[in-house]
Design goal:
This protein has seven helices and 13 strands. It is of the alpha+beta class. The chain has two domains: 2-107 and 194-250, Medium-chain alcohol dehydrogenases, catalytic domain (Quinone Oxidoreductase, Chain A, domain 1), CATH 3.90.180; 122-187, 3-Layer(aba) Sandwich (Rossmann fold), CATH 3.40.50.720. The strands form three sheets. Strands 3, 5, 6, 7, 8, 12 and 13 form a seven-stranded mixed sheet that branches. The chain has a three-stranded antiparallel sheet with strand order 2-1-4, with no helix packed on it. A three-stranded parallel sheet has the order 9-10-11, with helices on one face. α7 links the parallel β12 (222-227) and β13. α2 packs parallel to α3 (147-153). It starts with a strand and ends with a strand. Mean pLDDT is 85; it is low at 105-109.
Length: 251
């Protein structure tokens, strides 16, 4: 099968052996893939957790249909249309644990207020919109220089969940503001979770928000769609930082 593999001379589409579902794994016929910043780093040879380096099939998320089931897989059947996450996603076929799957597609999005965090006055805009109190929750993909700004934009007893560190892994942190606002600061990653923990997360998402996703109350913007043969151009588009929403590659 065709796959986007990091090799000695960089990433390229090449032929690799089709994977086989074992245990609780599900074999997915991939129809589309979403690009992530971690993927961009891995196209340059960087590792992400335990994955990366020469011989790695790149990619972390996909959408498609169930093509086959491992002997212990449950909850889906061959032919089901699904989406999910896992390694080696940029390929005609990918493997995923049966507990890391969802059933529908995201197309559109909506927001009450959009604020650009690169604007020095973004915290003031947030405080104005919340009557000076700050927000209940910040999902932080940036950190770096915005870490203390996030504290100023969060209400007393609010929460900050650090998901990504695209703006840097180290920065000044206002511990006094953190304490004064009694903010819960939470760090998350899949890299140090067991498969059982990941399954619990997917179960919680299904219970808490999946109904809203299926009803299109929660939606995600799709910036551009590239053919698999143009996956290199898709990464160039991501690196240019001019996109809004997901960059998708179709097979």
């Amino acid at each position: 099968m065709k796959a986007y593999v990091y090799g000695p001379n960089g990433p390229a589409i090449t032929e690799v052996e089709k994977p086989v579902a074992k245990g609780t794994q599900v074999l997915v016929k991939v129809r589309a893939c979403g690009l992530n910043r971690a993927d961009l780093g891995m196209t340059k040879g960087h590792v992400h957790g335990a994955a990366g380096g020469v011989g790695t099939v790149l990619g972390m998320e996909w959408a498609g249909e169930v093509a086959d089931l491992g002997p212990n897989a449950s909850g889906v059947k061959v032919g089901d249309r699904i989406m999910g996450s896992g390694g080696a996603a940029f390929a005609e076929y990918a493997l995923a644990d049966h507990g890391r799957l969802f059933r529908n597609r995201l197309k559109e999005f909506g927001a009450d207020l959009a604020v650009d965090s690169s604007d020095p006055g973004w915290v003031d805009q947030v405080l104005k919109a919340t009557n000076g109190e700050g927000v209940d929750l910040i999902v932080d993909q940036i950190s770096g220089k915005v870490a203390s700004q996030n504290l100023a934009a969060t209400r007393v007893k609010g929460r900050i969940v650090n998901v990504g560190r695209l703006g840097g892994t180290r920065a000044e942190f206002n511990f006094d503001l953190h304490a004064a606002r009694r903010i819960s600061y939470i760090g998350v990653t899949f890299r140090t979770r067991t498969i059982e923990e990941i399954r619990e997360i997917f179960d919680a998402v299904r219970k808490d928000i999946w109904g809203a996703v299926e009803a299109r109350k929660l939606q995600l913007p799709i910036d551009r769609v590239f053919a698999f043969a143009d996956i290199g151009k898709a990464f160039e588009h991501m690196e240019a930082n001019r996109h809004l929403g997901k960059i998708v590659v179709t097979l």
